[in-house]
Amino acid sequence: MSTTPADSRTPADSRTPADSRTPAESRTPTAPKTPGQLTDEVLASFDRCPDARLAELMRALVGHLHRFVTETRLTPREWERAIEILRATGEITDERRQEFILWSDALGVSMLVDALAHELPAGATESTVLGPFYVPGAPLRAYGESIAGEPGAGVPALVHGRVASIAGEPIAGAELDVWQNGADRLYAVQRPEAPEDHLRGRFRTRSDGSYAFVAVRPVPYQIPHDGPVGRMLKLTGRHPWRPAHIHMIVRAEGFQTLTTHIFDASSPYLDSDAVFAVKPSLVREFVEHAAGEPGTPPGVEGDWVSVRADLVLAPA
Q1: Residue 116, SS3?
Q2: 233 and 139, same structural domain?
Q3: Do 128 and 249 belong to one domain?
Q4: How many domains does the chain have?
Q5: Is the predicted pLDDT of residue 281 greater than 90, yes or no?
Q6: Does one domain contain both 179 and 236?
Q7: Same domain, 159 and 265
Q8: Residue 239 pLDDT greater than 80, yes or no
Q9: Mean predicted confidence (pLDDT) in 38-58
């Protein structure tokens, strides 16, 4: 039997005009993805995160970061420079220098984190930044001992006081972990040739909560400004100076650990600290003394200074 013309048509011949469109031609036109949709997509990617706090932090980070990029209309060139800054920050950071902490300090983030974490009761000594030069494991020293590991470190300074609770009760056995810079404006960690324990030490309070050690009078110094943070300060018209201070971490069982400074009241830059760490309650008067004056610490020759800094710890 002969087939009809219709029976002899191939499948291709049977397609309608609409069927003959290519996949690209048959696709329904869609609007371009908006910046807001992109942000929503990234935020949604954390929905399966098993750690609720981590998911909260990542969503907040992405949200703020995307808003910053959108509000400032960050250009590709600016984005490239930001990546370059992060790379340079990582390259300059080592066991002696923490440029990422320096960024945090110089942008006020360190002090903001500290303020949110330490809502202290009335009367407790205020905290401030740790800074980039802390090194754990300082030697345990005797009451009144000097922390200077080499001569000529600076004008001797007798630092003394009492560690107590908010109720005024002495805290015996509290540990004071102390470090500072010398007259050369440098911390020991910045000087490879300096004795490892120079201008560092740990002290225990006596039964009445008292402590004492001989330091040197601190001097203003510049935070490291030969790297990315320094370039930011220069380009934005800011200076790299910190006012004179001595660092302390105070630890005692049953109490919150306190990280704080003793600032010299006569120092410049108290009102323009490069890392925003000055609090009026931490400023102390360094009293000047002549050589041989009564109360001169053992081993101290020439003029010296003294400062009293009572410390009050909040309960844990």
Answers
A1: helix
A2: yes
A3: yes
A4: 2
A5: yes
A6: yes
A7: yes
A8: yes
A9: 97
Six-digit token string for 93:
């950071």
Q: Is residue 1 part of a domain?
A: no
Residues 226-235, mean pLDDT to the nearest whole number: 97
Neighbouring residues of 181: CB distance < 8 A, sequence distance ≥ 6: 187, 199, 218, 219, 221
Which pLDDT band, with edges at 50, 70 and 90, does 23 fall under? Answer: low
Tokens, residue 16: 């309608």
How do residues 123-179 score in pLDDT, each as one tens digit? 999 999 988 889 999 999 999 999 999 998 999 999 999 999 999 999 999 999 999
245-251 and 258-264 strand pairing = antiparallel
% of the chain beyond a pLDDT of 90:
80
Residue 23 belongs to a domain:
no
Quote the domain boundaries for residue 50. 35-74
Supply the pTM of this predicted model: 0.82
Q: Cα Rg for the chain, rounded, in angstroms?
A: 31
Q: Please give the Cα distance from 257 to 8 (Å, whole number).
A: 92
Residue 298 structure tokens = 């053992």
Q: Closest Cα partner for 240 from 109, 134, 103, 113?
A: 103
DSSP bridge partners of 283: 263
How far apart CA 263 and CA 157 sit, in angstroms, is 13
Q: 113 and 62, same structural domain?
A: no
> Which helix (H) or strand (E) covers residue 281, if one does?
none
Label the pairing between strands 210-216 and 304-308: unpaired
Q: Residue 306: inside a domain, yes or no?
A: yes
Angle at which helices 99-106 and 228-235 pack, to 10 degrees? Answer: 30
CA distance 288 to 157: 9
* pLDDT of residue 87 exceeding 90: yes
Q: Is residue 276 domain-resident? A: yes
CB neighbours of 308 closer than 8 A, spacing ≥ 6? 160, 161, 284
Asked if pLDDT for residue 252 goes beyond 60, the answer is yes
List the CATH number of the domain containing 221: 2.60.130.10
Q: How many CB atoms lie within 10 A of CB 119?
A: 8
In whole numbers, what is the pLDDT of the chain averaged over residues? 91
